[in-house]
Amino acid sequence: MSHPWMPVSTCDAACRDAEEPPSVALPRRVLRLFGLLLVLVLAIVSAPTLMVMRNRQPFVRFVFRCLLAACGVGLVVNGKLAGTGRGALVVHNHISWLDIVGLNAIDGGKPLRALAKREIASWPVLGGLVAKAGGVFLERERLSTLPATVANLAEVLRKGAIVAVSPEGTTWCGRASGRFRPALFQAAITGGVPVQPVALRYRTRAGRETAQPSFVGTDTLLDSVRRVLRTRGLVLELFVCPEIAPGRAGDRAELAGLAEAAVHAALGTASVPSRANTVASSRGASLRGGPCPTPATPADLTVPSRAVPTRSRTLH
Description:
disordered C terminus, acyltransferase, two-stranded antiparallel ribbon, 16% strand
């Protein structure tokens, strides 16, 4: 059962209706579906072995990369996640189920664990992979469980884990985004670990931002998967921003604000006051010039060089 403070996205199918993304022919879609099913079968068959592997992260990363490749999704990573030595809270904007796949496909010295909504645990294969990768699940509908979740997350971080969370609390289309809720940032403060913002964007290889992978409104997981399989040249682009050191922020609200600003800076966007923003403010919305502006042109996708690290890797 939902509660009054549960994050609500203003995005729906209208965010995608305004664009006509390039699509692949039916034979290519069937081939991608066949490849996706093969990867899922591999993950299911390997699950028993995965449970007893001491260092299973390389194999989990390999499976997530295969998932991206099977779906025809390229991965471009700017920067590098924290490696070894201590824990870190990785925070990112949330658009699609592919977010988790992309983050887990990144090279790193440590396994990347994810804080995800409880429903993901029941998703076919993907839920199991997230769980086996050390995922922590949150019951969003039960506000009473939040303090225990934050305390558990702080302990995990204190022990040296790197955990990815989406502080928006729900998915957005990508051209509109939600405010970073402060609650989960308390775990980083309590655990004494840095926060590392990561900005995600979906675009075509031609450079046009797209909302096709989004998982919003009345979407089912199958709806989103079908759109991903038919989109030509889909690219998930990640910008790993500089860490926010422990003690830099006075409290969790300030820490959330710093992380949100870093993500907007990396994407070259900003919270723009507008009528739509005013209407959505009661829901915690931070809109990029309106709820669903027109798709960005290649020029709009230019990222300030000082906003993100210069290292870039492309995986296909």
